Amino acid sequence: MSKSDLSTALINAGGGARRKPGPEPVADPKTKANGRAEKHPGRTGTKPITVHYPKPVRDQLKILAVEQDTTLHSLIGESFNMLFAKYGKPEIAPSERTE
Length: 99
Description:
There is one protein chain. This protein is mainly α. The protein has a domain at 53-93. The radius of gyration is 25 Å and the shape is elongated. The termini are far apart. It is built from 3 helices and no strands.
C-alpha cells in the first residue's frame, strides 16, 4: 500500500475532517468521449498562424486596435492583405472590419 493510499485509508477510517470526498467530476459537455474538446464552428477551414515578437510589438498592436476601434484579428487581416497586394497576390485574408 502506498503512502498516499495509507493516509487516505486512515483518514476515511477515522472519519477525519481533513479530507472530505468532493463532488464527482462532471463531464464537460464541450468534451468528446475521447477527451478532446469539440472544435469551434467558426474555426472550420482555418489554420492557426503563430508568430513570436517582443512584448512592445504586441502592445503597440493592441493600442492600435483600440485606437481604430477594431480587433487584433481584423487589424492583422488588414495587414496580411496589404502585404499580399504589395507582392501582387489576391487579398484573401478575411477582415471583420466594416467601414
